[in-house]
Design brief:
17 helices, globular, eleven-stranded mixed β-sheet, eight-stranded antiparallel β-sheet, alpha+beta, 33 strands
Length: about 675
């Protein structure tokens, strides 16, 4: 009698057993699969559902895999080790740390912002690796990357375990039917809990309705910094060969046929000063040759005829000239001016466009406008509305999760994105390129569904010392957050999960850092839409506003600092309407920050008292954007960040208490 009916994972969902029991049952099934007990259900080398090709149509010399994980779990460090051990670098070649983070902002912040691909060779098999961002604001990069690959490597920190972005990227991979290789990284951490993290991963897979074959994933334990991997937590690894073997075994070869009509899907764009725009694309069917005339199937359904001028394949971090493409390979194509992400390169005579890449909707918007302050044009190179429009249109070519809408005036644009971090990265990039601009307060993107106003919500995970649980729950409760679950690991820290409106996230991070004395770890993820939940308090304090032009003096700031928190020191140029600090009370206060001490011949015991200023709070770009209210803006130049009122003149500015409610829903 066959034991298959008793070991079907589908039956596990109906068994009244604990989570630990379920994990043991899954382990039994995995051992049976490894012993060929169920040959028809083997995970290894199983083609994707709905894409069952003939054996002769598989290109066994190529594997395409994406590394997906939460931010700061060690993806880029692991790719470094894979490149080194595969021989991508010469023995005497000087290589920087996190070599894939080539962007200046990526190196500064220690995060991956743009998806990038590289290739390594192992046992005569080319492995194309796509390194994806780990922050949910750059989820559009992950969604594009998953279209280029046949398998995923899910990386999880051995201490932190699955976090919100882990759930997001895994759900996208499972929806696409991609077989996963699970890598538990940083096993050398003193607080590592690899077995508990593995159990949490099983829970996550089941919660995301993973198929039976996807639950039979391979598990490896790695130390990316040391460059070691092992199939068992008890046996220390020596190198990354177990990881390479698992990739070859689990990731199916790319399917397709060179005799079918040409189908190459563009998933990324690059630019060369010599060759112009480059399309980073995957070959699904057919073969493309250098100098060939092909057609671009545009997103609007039209066809545009072009001639290919150059073809490149990837090898390590370099691009290698090739004369023709190979089935399933990821290539760079020159001669494709005007091509966009999601479009298909196909035959002119027999066009066969591929389905477009579907990207999740943006949830937050910020108004970009031309700098109109008295100091406009002093520091920046690009200051006009034409410069601003051209730069935003250029960004749309490579950033598919971004949208730009024209406003009522010619000098204002509404930029919609996934989150504050994504938009602040764009602003910082523009600032470094020499742009001057102003941005307003972030606002959420609402929808009307069945006549009801709906707003986006986020799943928020907070990791804090247990001494701050009360203040965190109170703070998030004020912002309409609801606690879903709380887990105490017994290490002095508590992990709490909330659902909270996206509006409530604006400015929350800086407040939480203050309330928890810098010990909070926060991660959030878009969770869907809910009915409008009413007003949420944004900022309970007013602003200290300069009432005249001039240069700030220590004498004047010494008298002002008792009123609140200063944002600048002595010797700064000011103009009327510029915000110099935060008032401790709810109302705005106009102050004279340029007043000088009058010199006289009279002496007194207190006249020559030393002036001591409290250190001012130097706001970062993200903090400045979170701070501003509806009637305020952030002035951004290559050298300075300034906060200001929209209406500079005090006698024309409405009082704060007579302004519109801070959380009135935006018109949809």
């Amino acid at each position: 009698m066959s034991c298959r009916p008793f070991l079907s994972l589908a039956a596990f969902y109906f068994l009244p057993c604990s989570s630990a029991c379920l994990h043991r049952l899954i382990g039994i099934v995995r051992r049976f699969q490894q012993q060929n007990a169920f040959p028809d259900r083997m995970v290894l080398h199983t083609p994707l559902k709905g894409k069952e090709p003939k054996e002769t149509n598989l290109n066994s010399n190529i594997r395409n895999i994406a590394i997906i994980a939460h931010v700061d779990h060690g993806k880029t460090t692991l790719v470094d080790a894979m490149l080194r051990q595969s021989g991508a670098f010469r023995a005497n070649e000087a290589v920087v740390e996190r070599v894939m983070d080539s962007n200046e902002l990526e190196r500064e912040r220690g995060i991956t912002i743009l998806a990038k691909n590289t290739a390594i060779w192992y046992h005569d098999v080319k492995i194309n690796i796509v390194d994806t961002p780990g922050h949910s604001d750059f989820g559009g990069e992950v969604e594009r990357a998953l279209k280029m690959v046949d398998g995923v490597m899910l990386l999880v920190d051995a201490s932190e375990g699955p976090l919100p972005q882990t759930r997001y990227v895994l759900s996208k991979a499972l929806e696409a039917g991609l077989p996963p290789v699970v890598v538990i990284n940083k096993i050398d951490r003193p607080d590592a809990r690899a077995q508990e993290v593995l159990n949490e991963l099983y829970d996550l897979f089941i919660d995301l309705d993973a198929r039976e074959d996807q639950l039979g994933f391979s598990v490896l334990y790695t130390n990316a910094k040391a460059g070691t991997a092992s199939t068992s937590i008890e046996v220390p690894g020596e190198d990354l060969r177990p990881l390479f073997d698992a990739i070859l075994a689990t990731t199916p070869p790319p399917a397709g046929d060179v005799l079918n009509p040409l189908q190459i899907l563009v998933a990324n764009l690059d630019y060369s000063d010599y060759l112009g725009r480059l399309a980073i694309a995957r070959v699904f069917n057919g073969r493309l040759r250098n100098g060939e005339d092909v057609a671009i199937a545009k997103l609007d359904g039209t066809l545009e005829k072009i001639k290919i001028t150059k073809l490149f394949s990837f090898s390590g971090l370099k691009r290698v000239d090739i004369e023709q493409t190979e089935l399933g390979d990821i290539v760079a194509i020159a001669g494709v001016e005007g091509i966009g992400i999601g479009e298909t390169i196909t035959n002119v005579e027999n066009p066969a466009p591929l389905p477009h890449i579907v990207i999740d909707e943006p949830t937050i918007a910020i108004q970009f406008t031309v700098n109109t302050s008295p100091f406009a044009g002093r520091e920046g190179t690009y200051v006009t509305s034409r410069n601003l429009r051209e730069r935003l249109q250029k960004e749309l070519l490579t950033n598919v999760s971004l949208r730009v809408e024209e406003m009522g005036t010619t000098d204002t644009f509404k930029v919609l994105g996934r989150g504050e971090l994504q938009l602040s990265i764009l602003i910082e990039t523009m600032r470094r390129e020499g742009f001057e601009l102003m941005v307003g307060k972030p606002e959420i993107v609402t929808k009307r569904i069945n006549g009801k106003l709906m707003e986006p919500t986020e799943k928020l995970m907070v990791d804090i010392p247990d001494a701050f649980v009360g203040v965190v729950i109170e703070k998030i409760g004020q912002r309409k957050g609801q606690m879903l679950k709380m887990h105490n690991h017994g290490s002095g820290r508590v992990r709490i999960e909330f659902t909270i409106p996206s509006r409530g996230m604006i400015g929350l991070r800086s407040e939480m850092l203050t309330d928890t004395r810098g010990t909070v770890i926060m991660n959030s993820l878009f969770d869907g839409y809910t009915e409008w939940l009413g007003a949420i308090p944004h900022r309970m304090t007013g602003a200290l506003i300069s009432d005249r032009n001039g240069t700030s003096t220590a004498y004047a700031l010494w008298g002002i600092q008792e009123r609140g928190v200063l944002f600048l020191g002595a010797g700064e140029e000011l103009y009327e309407g510029m915000i110099v600090g935060e008032n401790a009370r709810e109302v705005d206060l106009d102050v004279n920050a340029v007043r000088e001490k009058k010199l006289t011949n009279m002496r007194s015991s207190s006249a020559d008292e030393a002036i001591r200023l409290v250190p001012f709070k130097n706001l970062t770009l993200e903090q400045a954007i979170e701070f501003v209210a509806d009637d305020e803006m952030v002035e951004i130049t290559p050298k300075n960040l300034r906060l200001r009122k929209k209406i500079l003149q005090a006698n024309r500015r409405p009082k704060k208490n007579s302004a519109a409610p801070a959380n009135a829903p935006a018109t949809v």
